[in-house]
User: What shape does this take?
Amino acid sequence: MKETNATLLLRGKSILCHSKIPLWKAMKENHISVSTHLAVRSGELITDDEMVKPGDLIELIPIISGG
Amino acid sequence: MRCRKCGEKAVINMRQHRLSLCKQHYLEWLPNHVMKLIEKYEMFSEHDHILVAVSGGKDSLALWDILWKLGFHTEGLYINLGIDAKIAYSNRSMKFAHEFAVQRNLPLHIADIKRDYGESIREISARTRRGRDKPCSLCGLIKRHIMNRFALDGQYDVLVTAHNLDDEAAILLANTLDWSLEFLARGEPVLPSKPGFLKKVKPFSRTYEREAAAYAILRNIEYMRDECPFSIDSKQLYYKKYLNEWEENRPGIKLRFYLNYLSAIANGAFPTRQESAGQLAQQRCPQCGQPTNTGSLCAFCKLFDEI
Assistant: This one.
């Protein structure tokens, strides 16, 4: 992994993303909806305007359920 | 982004409310938001004996936690449908509900359809046309029947379900597209009691699914994160997908859709549930005694009569 990248973790899958951009942008680049996921970094819930830092590991938690 | 109340770092931004909050203020805000709805609709009081339907998912456990924190007298009901699909879905969900209840010293009742009726939902689905076509509707039918019967037998005052705003908006959209006038009255936050039916309330009906999930995470509530294996093609998820796309571009659209619908009901746009279900309460299933409009066995008993 390049030092300038970060990782989004979604349903057990790792997705490399750009850093030094807002989280919403990193999610958008990877076609992940900000309205249907919450983000956790270092055990803390974060908002989607947070900057993604190089080396970050951000877990994205899907929030939609139903049947 | 900063908390509007204290200026600390925000953990959630609710664009529909134009409100961002830190952990501490969010964990105060959501219970207050729910309490206002409970009071507005006179859902229940501190004197009531409340049965909370829990699935082991984020919504029901978050809601039960809030009601517990607010000091209400609650007991939980988990219905084990026997969904396995290689991930032990039902048993794992039950474990989350059980651990939640144990941690808070709350009573949790377990209904198990395999134990009580001899078949899991997969087995019922496989042999019934209704199940093959619509497993989610079968699931809903079974849960509604068991919840109502358990709540009446246990002489509870009210049955609480954790339907959230996204659930209500999705059901509303489906019923609007189908123009199902009879069902359009089902989205009300309170369904009053009537003969054979316990009062049913939805304190999360103005809470976004996202808000419930954030609460569960911030309260360190362990919940079932896997999706029900039967829900892959569910109609509700289909409508939620579109509603969330609209929400992303037009924050608050789901809330406005639901609130304007409630205003329409209040203005007499649809038959109320009491009117549309007026005939239902007059007939009883000869097998289980629950209300039915079939003139013979209720839909639930028919499922098992086909064996």
Q: What stands out?
A: Chain B has a mean pLDDT of 91. The first helix of chain B runs from residue 23 to 40. DSSP finds 13 helices and eight strands in chain B. The radius of gyration of chain B is 19 Å.
